[in-house]
Amino acid sequence: MRILFTGGGTGGHFYPIIAVVEQLNRIIKENKLVNVELYFLSESPYNPSVLFDHNLIFKKNYAGKLRKYFSIMNFFDLFKTGWGILRSLWTIYLIYPDVMFGKGGYASFPAMLASRILRIPVIIHESDSVPGRANIWASKFAERIAVSYPEAAKYFPQEKVAYTGQPIREDFFLPLRSNAYEFLKLDPSLKTILIIGGSQGSQIINDAITESVPKLVENYQIIHQTGKFNFEEVQKVSSAVLTRNPNKERYKIYSYLDSLTLRSAAGIADLVISRAGSSIFEIAAWGIPSIIIPIQKSNGDHQIKNAFSYARTGAAVVIEEANLTGNIIAAEAERILGDQSIHQRMKSSTSSFVKKDAARKIAEEILKIALSHGE
Fold this sequence. Notes:
This protein has 2 domains: about 1-170 and about 355-375, 3-Layer(aba) Sandwich (Rossmann fold); about 170-355, Rossmann fold (3-Layer(aba) Sandwich), CATH 3.40.50.2000. By secondary structure, the protein is α/β, with parallel strands linked by helices. It is built from 14 helices and 13 strands. The protein is globular and about 65 Å long. Strands 3-2-1-4-5-6-7 form a 7-stranded parallel β-sheet, sandwiched between helices. A 6-stranded parallel β-sheet has the order 10-9-8-11-12-13, with helices on both faces. The protein has helices spanning about 10-30, 50-55, 75-95, 110-115, 135-140, 180-185, 205-215, 230-240, 260-270, 280-285, 300-310, 325-335, 340-350, 360-375, and strands at about 1-5, 35-40, 55-60, 100, 120-125, 145, 160-165, 190-195, 220-225, 250-255, 270-275, 290, 315-320.
């Protein structure tokens, strides 16, 4: 039996795939299934060690973006996509999987088209409240469609779609609290704010945080993930604004949070400031109140809709980019952390947003189709 996974080259596509693979490997072990091969087809392995740990065989592919705005790169990317389709056809033909799971994103398009041509059964998953173009197109021939937001179901054929929730890796349901303060070199007597701007970081959030950090460190300690491309600039600016601040050691800056560091930060954080991508589901799994700052211009304004969908549960507040300043972030953080009743109410509301069995349900359906296809 062979199962193929594909998705865009970001953590928002990659890690939900890993969550599904975790459960798939568990089911394979429970049922003593043999000769099961798992493949990941994308432009890059994203995190090779994670692929290795989960027995995923990487196959390289190419894909070009189809931008909605004018760019000379659209011309060149047409050829890149064409080459990606031809390469996908050959790669998938050699593997000839029993089922393919597509996570969406432009990088998944060549593989999904090749699977369509080769008549490979396809399952897709949509993480956003407004689906991307690749998944809208793939829904026309997909066997099953899973969605993270109930609002997304209306964009797909109703007889195929299921509201499963977002697949989340098992360890995200188990933040690390023991020794976390020591590991992160933080003070257990202070409340902690965790800032995560997505896998690439966020310039606008970084700017607002460096503006507000002198105020925030008066009462709180900060763990700030900047993104690797923004790290040096944020480090330089924050060092300047905190030069004579007696509380400057309360501000901890990271370009990237590995699994251990992120789980430790999640274990002690009292408030999370984040974008409105798939990280929303991880924050909800941690049970932490949050301030969500959606990207102002995203496909179908999906981040804004994601953010307000989550905020309606009562677990988060939304600050739109047009209103984002350091003073507003500091004021909202103080309002949430300074009032125990508000904080507790938001914390209690997180549980209604997470479906803990999402990855398991998707894995079971993948295996069901794979077994029927192999008969």
